[in-house]
Write a structure and sequence with these properties.
This protein is of the alpha/beta class. Helix content is about 55%, strand content about 10%. It has a 6-stranded parallel beta sheet with strand order 1-6-2-5-4-3, with helices on both faces. It has a two-stranded parallel sheet with strand order 7-8.
Length: about 350
């Protein structure tokens, strides 16, 4: 069975599966999914836990031994495996299938990995495993899911936030789960059992919340110019190198130019980019903001910025980066910029 994080609590209420596979990049979502499963397992008498780190070969003699050593007197145990890849090799798939065959009622196997590659979902091992256990896809939250997540987290921390305090958290954390969770922990320490409004939230929020390049490009594709510019400034304060930022913008501009062309790119032309359906749809929608020629012009400006960063051309890369982010997300050229291609 394949489910999302929001579906996991309802699935656990029905029954505890023999194995769970948690796939996704966000550490907070991984942590929350794992916590839900472990709490349910504890209720059902699983008291022992062993940790394993595996490669795409899914091979570890200690894991094999833990699966097959059975005793009338042993406790029910959880085998937690961290897979340092988003796929299994052919040999790894065979080893994984053998592990599943060894699971019995006193064993709960939990696997954590990065996002599974698309071809893994079509493989024979996945289809066979999906019939026996639960795959939890931990995708980035959309705006509605993010608001629901924050509301539930506030309840979990037992905080008394009024509407203005919640709005302040929504605005300043902007979907960043790690920053939001850190803010909630700080609020719990500072204002336990007290009413919390906007002033209290703003007093504790720190400007150095952790952001990623993916959050920047997501904001751009969603057309959220203010949010994208805010993330760009945060990345700069976090010490992100401009070379990495321009690399991400060039990648998005190359794709946006492709999707704005006529005819649209074929699946064969896009195969090298490994786009999952949701991201492909976001790019197609964002590409409609500007005609092909303007996306091309922006791409050339990004190339110019890259040359400035490498010292080939003179100029101020921070201004061009800001210009690119603003125009890509809003389709409006900032009046302060008159940059030559």
């Amino acid at each position: 069975m394949k489910i999302t994080l929001t579906e996991l609590p309802f699935s656990l209420k029905r029954n505890l599966a023999s194995f769970y596979w948690l796939s996704g990049e966000d550490a907070i979502l991984q942590e929350e999914a794992l916590s839900l499963i472990l709490n349910k397992a504890q209720e059902q008498g699983f008291t022992e836990k062993q940790h394993f780190t595996l490669t795409s070969q899914f091979e570890d003699p200690a894991l094999w031994q833990a699966l097959h050593n059975r005793s009338l007197w042993q406790d029910r145990k959880i085998l937690l495996a961290h897979l340092n890849a988003g796929k299994l090799t052919q040999k790894g798939a065979s080893h994984f299938s053998e592990c599943l065959a060894g699971i019995h009622s006193d064993i709960l196997l939990i696997i954590q990995s990065s996002k599974l590659e698309n071809n893994q979902y079509q493989s024979a091992w996945y289809k066979a495993a999906e019939a026996r256990g639960v795959f939890v896809n931990l995708w980035p939250l959309n705006e509605r899911e993010w608001q629901k997540w924050l509301t539930e987290s506030i309840k979990t921390f037992e905080l008394k936030l009024d509407a203005s305090g919640i709005d302040a958290l929504l605005f300043h954390c902007e979907g960043n789960l790690l920053a939001a969770k850190n803010a909630l922990r700080s609020l719990k320490l500072a204002y336990a059992d007290q009413n919390i409004g906007e002033a209290e939230v703003l007093a504790l929020l720190t400007p150095q919340g952790h952001y990623t390049l993916n959050q920047l490009t997501d904001a751009i594709l969603q057309g959220k110019g203010v949010k994208a510019e805010n993330i760009l400034q945060h990345l700069s304060r976090q010490g992100f190198e401009n070379n990495l930022i321009i690399w991400a913008l060039l990648r998005e501009l190359r794709l946006l130019t492709l999707f704005s062309g006529n005819p649209l790119p074929t699946d064969a032309e896009l195969s090298a980019y490994k786009l999952w359906p949701q991201r492909k749809a976001s790019l197609q929608q964002a590409a409609k903001r500007l005609p092909y020629a303007e996306w091309q012009a922006l791409f050339k400006k990004a190339l110019r910025c890259d040359k400035i960063l490498k010292g080939v051309l003179p100029g101020e890369p921070e201004l061009i980066l800001s210009h690119l982010v603003c125009t890509m997300s809003t389709a409006k050229t900032p009046f302060a910029f008159t940059l030559e291609v």
